[in-house]
Specification:
Elements (H helix, E strand, L loop, with lengths): L5 H4 L12 H11 L6 E2 L1 H11 L11 H11 L7 E2 H16 L3 E6 L3 H4 L17 H11 L4 E7 L33 E4 L5 E4 L25 E5 L22 H7 L4 E7 L1 H14 L3 E10 L3 H14 L2 E3 L4 H6 L5 H23 L3
Helix pairs in contact: 2-5, 4-12, 5-12, 9-10
Family: Belongs to the isochorismatase family.
Pfam families: EF-hand_7 (PF13499), Isochorismatase (PF00857)
Pathway: Cofactor biosynthesis; nicotinate biosynthesis; nicotinate from nicotinamide: step 1/1
Length: 361
């Protein structure tokens, strides 16, 4: 089959030089329906995949499993071919998000206490210097145009459950392997509640209104940045910027991202294995594509950092260095893994819409 010229079609949409619309989607279908039978067969679809997923110069090599998953997700009636109707109904949203994503940078907890204060990462088991995230984040902010920048903050009351010095305030559950008397920083204990709560103990940090809770002054914070505070409830911790650890209450983050039509979130900050990672996992649960900036994150424990990276990747996130951010945000670098996450989101949205039609509220 003749290979369509990728540069003459998909690359015209890079950095929004042209807005991808329904007419473009029709032209795309016609371009890849080489035998003109009104369907994309698996061979024709494979050529489209080869052209859409590239790093700006070379196509990515998709595995057979990746190709199969994408075809299955977008073949709505599962007849082994994608009709023009299916393509315009499903692939339009799929392609538009791949070509022209709306991206937010989420800067997680770059606060004094984590960099220079009571819970400075350099004093944690991994020995990583949290100050190292600042030059990487500042460089990204200088070179990449994000739709939105969000800064999250731990914002704890003085009697917060996570503080080791507060361990005497709440009774321990009988199943806690560590007693109230023995418990110390970095131990994981179980409080009686209600509800019964497993909690890792930390040094007192990021107390509301304190110097330790302030964003580090060396971090560049754009004037239109949005701040999201978490961990305000004294009786439950909040590693994720979306939810508390018990998943009982949300922050306003998902509403903020939705208001700005965000599709992709780029994560950086501290701590990689704690608040950065759990924010990423929850972001994918809410349907956002997730990109973690490896050189702009620092963590607490090496083993747990590696475990968190694995969890993020298994769920659909990609982990990159900051030098690649600009091309992905602008759409010239289009990694397959993000495209697969988009297809999953499109399929899920279609299922929810169809269920609502069958079972209206």
């Amino acid at each position: 089959m003749d290979s369509p010229d990728r540069d003459n079609f998909f690359d015209r949409f890079v950095d929004r030089k042209k807005i991808f619309d329904k007419q473009d989607c029709i032209q795309c279908f016609q371009r890849y329906d080489v035998d003109r039978d009104g369907y994309l067969n698996k061979r024709e679809f494979r050529q489209l995949l080869s052209d859409i997923f590239c790093d700006g110069s070379q196509p990515y090599k998709l595995t057979e499993e990746q190709e199969k998953e994408l075809f299955t997700l977008l073949d709505q009636d599962q007849d082994g071919k994608i009709s023009k109707t299916e393509f315009l109904g499903n692939c339009y949203y799929w392609l538009k998000q791949i070509l022209q994503p709306n991206s937010a940078l989420i800067v997680v907890d770059v606060q004094n206490d984590f960099l220079d204060g009571n819970l400075a990462l350099r004093n944690c088991p991994a020995g990583q210097d949290g100050l190292g995230v600042i030059p990487a984040i500042n460089s990204v902010l200088d070179t990449v145009n994000f739709e939105l920048v969000v800064c999250t903050r731990d914002w704890h009351p003085a009697d917060h459950i996570s503080f080791a010095e507060n361990k005497h305030i709440r009774p321990f559950h009988s199943t806690s392997q560590i007693t109230q008397r023995e418990a110390k920083v970095h131990d994981t204990v179980i409080f009686e509640g209600p509800p019964m709560t497993e909690q890792r103990l930390w040094p007192t940090h990021c107390v509301q209104g304190s110097w330790g809770a302030e964003i580090h002054t060396d971090l560049k914070v754009p004037d239109n940045s949005v701040f999201v505070d978490k961990g305000k409830n004294p009786n439950v911790d909040s590693y994720s910027a979306f939810w508390d650890n018990n998943k009982h209450s949300q922050t306003e983050l998902v509403q903020i991202l939705s208001k700005h039509n965000i599709t992709d979130v780029y994560l950086c900050g501290v701590a990689y294995d704690v608040c950065v990672g759990f924010t990423g996992l929850d972001a994918m649960d809410h349907g956002f594509r997730v990109v973690a900036l490896d050189d702009a994150c620092r963590g607490v424990d090496i083993k747990q950092i590696d475990e968190m990276k694995k969890s993020l990747q298994e769920k659909g996130a990609i982990i990159i260095s900051t030098c690649k951010v600009k091309d992905i945000v602008e759409g010239s670098d289009r990694p397959p893994k993000l495209g697969i996450q988009t297809a999953r989101n499109v399929a899920l949205a279609r299922t929810l819409v169809n269920n609502n039609k069958v079972h209206p509220t």
